[in-house]
């Protein structure tokens, strides 16, 4: 029986063995960031855990920094998607609260990757580009939210872009410090929500408290 277009499309969408191996390398790298730490993790520890040769690893990634850069890029895509979804409500206070909660959850679930991104961004160009692209994207989303509150879209230190840029970097640093030192991420999210809402002169939605 000839293949239909639907069947062919479904087969093309299925992950290949190569895709699965690449994801296994990324998943193992994230796991070893937690169990071994970046300095003790090596290409050898990754390949041994995945069950592949060093040559097979190099088919996908040129170095340990390269696989970490790919892992950061994967995490950044998820983070951006979650923040975009959080803004779906359209109501500024609720959108900001959800954005901060989603960011907290990402730090909880992928804190090892995100800490490595913060720490290596200044010295590993690919990681720096991915991480800064995430910060910029989140700033753009929150700037649009801020403008819906009435914050003017003007140049200068009190315009929506300047204010949200400062708040986004503050959020990144606060969650990084909390994740690194073991401070409650829930408490950090609550503090950041308070600061964001006050900075934009918003009243929290009582139903969301």
Topology at a glance:
Blueprint: H1 5-13, H2 17-35, H3 43-50, H4 54-60, H5 64-86, H6 92-120, H7 125-148, H8 160-181, H9 185-199
- How would a crystallographer describe the biggest sheet? none
Number of E strands: 0
Q: Give me the strand/helix succession.
A: HHHHHHHHH
Provide the structure class. mainly alpha
Alpha-carbon Rg, integer = 20 Å
* Unreliable sequence segments: 1-10
What portion of residues is helical? over 70%
First-to-last CA distance:
59 Å
What's the mean pLDDT score? 91
Basic shape: elongated
Work out the strand percent.
Answer: under 5%
> How many DSSP H or I helices?
9
Task: Provide structural commentary.
The protein has 209 residues and is mostly helical. The protein is built from nine helices and no strands. Helix 2 (17-35) crosses helix 5 (64-86), helix 5 packs antiparallel against helix 6 (92-120) and helix 6 crosses helix 9 (185-199). The protein is elongated, with a radius of gyration of 20 Å. The termini are far apart.
List keywords for this structure.
disordered N terminus, 209 residues
Short description:
The protein is an all-alpha fold and 209 residues long. It has nine helices and no strands.
């Amino acid at each position: 029986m000839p293949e239909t277009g639907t069947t062919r499309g479904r087969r093309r969408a299925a992950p290949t063995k190569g895709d699965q191996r690449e994801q296994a390398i990324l998943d193992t790298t994230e796991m070893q960031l937690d169990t071994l730490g970046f300095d003790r993790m090596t290409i050898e520890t990754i390949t041994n855990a995945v069950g592949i040769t060093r040559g097979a690893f190099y088919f996908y990634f040129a170095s340990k920094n390269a696989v970490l850069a790919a892992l950061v890029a994967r995490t950044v895509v998820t983070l951006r998607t979650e923040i975009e979804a959080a803004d779906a409500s359209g109501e500024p206070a609720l959108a900001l609260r959800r954005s901060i909660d989603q960011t907290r959850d990402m730090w909880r679930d992928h804190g090892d990757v995100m800490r490595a991104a913060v720490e290596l961004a200044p010295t590993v160009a690919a990681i720096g580009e991915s991480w800064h692209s995430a910060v910029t994207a989140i700033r753009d989303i929150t700037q649009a939210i801020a403008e819906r509150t009435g914050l003017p879209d003007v140049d200068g230190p009190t315009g929506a872009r300047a204010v949200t840029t400062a708040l986004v970097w503050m959020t990144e640093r606060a969650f990084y410090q909390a994740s690194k030192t073991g401070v409650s991420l829930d408490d950090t999210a609550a503090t950041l929500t308070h600061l964001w809402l006050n900075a934009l002169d918003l009243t929290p939605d009582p139903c969301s408290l």
